Amino acid sequence: MEQINQADTAWMLVSTALVLLMTPALAFFYGGLVRNKNSLNTMMMSFVALGVVGVTWAVLAYSLVFSEGGPLLGGLANLGLAGVGVEPKGTIPHVLFMAYQGTFAIITAALISGAVVERMRFGPYVAFIVLWTLLVYAPVAHWVWGGGWLMTRGVLDFAGGTVVHINAGVSALVAALVLGTRKDYGRQAVLPHNVPFTLLGAGLLWFGWFGFNGGSALAANELAALAFSNTFLAPMATLLVWTLLDYFRTGRATAVGAATGIVVGLVAITPAAGFVSPGSALALGALAAFPSYFAIALRSRTRIDDSLDVFAGHGIGGLTGALLTGILAQKVWNGAGNDGLLYGNPAQLGVQALGCLSSAAYAAAMTFAILKAMAFVTALRVVPRTEGVGMDVSQHGEEAYASGEGSILIHPEMASSAPEPLPAFTPQVAPR
């Protein structure tokens, strides 16, 4: 008989709060990487997910993921949180399990925004992440975690390498291709306006990730301690290797590179956190730096305007971590799951590849279909003139950095009729 355990409940309360913090942290990480005229809009794309995706999760998506259903999708038994109360779900209250899983859905949708910032209209973006949560995230999460067909095949995804990062990364790439490049892309340098924001965001993401991975044990036990420790170690190795790659390739160790390396290491250890030893976590983190680092370097030479390299960081980082899980996993650390290739079970690598490819293909096809369908109804991106003025004023009527006390914001469409500013007052000095 299931019974609620107070220690497990306390840990999961903390973990839920930690993962929720990751979405504001992502807002700072992304917000610092864009130009100042778009920083508020970029941060709002993360913050709005707390509302619209959170409500979508509670009303419908939770049921589609975790209610008893078929191999492809859950049922409607928990529609509107019906039957979700304080009764045990494992050793924690059911309502707490629902809230914890909801924080994953929120940040997964928010991750995609990094590929379309500085050009996608805010209203269509909000509609897109609602549809994406229902049509992409919910099915894939059910496949892997809710009793679906990938779960029965034995795919190992401890905390979301496939469900969160490959899913969001591939969808971000498709969204960037559908929307097209920013008007300034390839013509002038598009530089981060506030690198300290990005470093702050990376640090807060790491802090929250202890709940992301450690909480995925769903208990305060040895497995949580293993996942917690691996989340501690892997990003350290990625940060070190990334910094060395930066230094030997460019002669400089950049702050943006350090922040990116931390996030890539966190992404890569996510699917493996509860399946590999601490030593393997260090190796995984070190290896994960290479494909994402060179993917970012290559992308900058193409016409693919994935603005903040969501695919390289999350898509490729998640793919690397998922495949290395199939190589480095050891059943002795978990007591469940399977060993990986290095420990006598080469089939696990094939299972991991199946999970990665099927999820990526589904996410790509559905994201393309959603955006193309929306494009028949409304424009997805702002007009070039509005893009030049900046997204903060046009989409929110606010500025992140006001030009002066009492400044008046003028919508771009009104700019042609705006009065000319008064000339500056110059004091006149009488001759002696």
Model description:
By secondary structure, the chain is mainly alpha-helical. The chain has a single domain (6-378), classed as Ammonium transporter fold (Orthogonal Bundle), CATH 1.10.3430.10. Helices cover 63% and strands 1% of the residues. It has 15 helices and 2 strands. The chain has helices spanning 6-31, 39-66, 94-112, 122-145, 149-153, 161-179, 195-214, 222-250, 255-269, 278-299, 310-328, 331-334, 347-375, 384-389, 391-396; strands at 88-89, 92-93. It has a two-stranded antiparallel sheet with strand order 1-2. Strand 1 (88-89) and strand 2 form a beta hairpin. Helix 4 runs antiparallel to helix 6 and helix 6 runs parallel beside helix 13 (347-375). It is globular and about 65 Å long.
Number of strands: 2
What would you report as the Rg, rounded to the nearest angstrom? 23 Å
Beta-strand portion reads under 5%
From N to C, what is the helix and strand string?
A: HHEEHHHHHHHHHHHHH
Biggest sheet layout: 2 strands, antiparallel
Low-confidence stretches: 405-432
Q: Give the domain tally.
A: 1
